């Protein structure tokens, strides 16, 4: 897999980003362009769902998911978004350049966007994507973070061929591949296993343990490719589909504080929490519910959004126990399947874990990027 060469010192981010002084003009389609605002949420929802239906994507969105995007304080819609309207005022195309405030290992921008199916083939998408890439370079240059950098986009494996050609033409290379998996929860399916924990305690998700779960997540994903620490604002944002009643946590009721503090792998935030006597979450499964997707897929399901185990607690079955507990909660609420996504090169052996629990692949997606 292509990667950035780290054998020599990196040039300053301003040089590597090679940001243009001005952004390219979009002339294709004869559209009128302006930044997105919160008032555009209904039209943006309609366009995004129209695109998803045309491209046979396995999901749909609801208005709350769109409006909550505008609530994140780190998003700059005035400079990092565009909407293209036709002469009648109908929304035809959109673009968003997303950057994350918590990046400490790789500074990233992610590009989202699309064109109404009825207006494809006019060059709108190609010009709009060029604008996004140029704006992404400007955002990276302005970050001031002299770190490895990435401009990324995502695509379904069976998405439009024209979109794949556009990415290739713009110099994007596939870097990571993801599989969506599902596990049958119906009465006719194999029963969920009982997983016993030694010295650890399985508890339901609670708001009181939310911050402790964030610290566990940042520790668990330190060695995952492309993952970056989540700030408290990032962690609690974007929870329209969050199903706390399905969340499961594993805590250590009597952690060896001295040993953990002496461990060089213990991060500073966790060390502070240990010294303060706060609860130690060591594994977690946080799940989501998207009723609007049931008809698209033809079945009801719960979705495991994030699953992880602290590095010092791997091998103690915390994550499998939390995952199964979440699936039991889904099953109790009548869900027919449990679903999740996995990086096919996950370093913790998660793919084998899911296979052992009866998960099978339904479809795939990929991340493409320019590495700087």
TrEMBL record:
EC number: 2.3.1.189
Keywords: Acyltransferase, Transferase
PROSITE patterns: GNAT
Gene3D superfamilies given in the database record: 3.40.630.30
Enzyme class: transferase
GO MF term set: mycothiol synthase activity
Cited CDD domains: NAT_SF
Classification via InterPro entries: Acyl_CoA_acyltransferase, GNAT_dom
Domain of life according to the entry: Bacteria
Tagged with keyword Transferase: yes
Keyword Acyltransferase: yes
Positions of the N-acetyltransferase domain: 31-193
Protein name: Mycothiol acetyltransferase
Classification lineage: Bacteria, Bacillati, Actinomycetota, Actinomycetes, Micrococcales
Gene name of the encoded protein: mshD_1
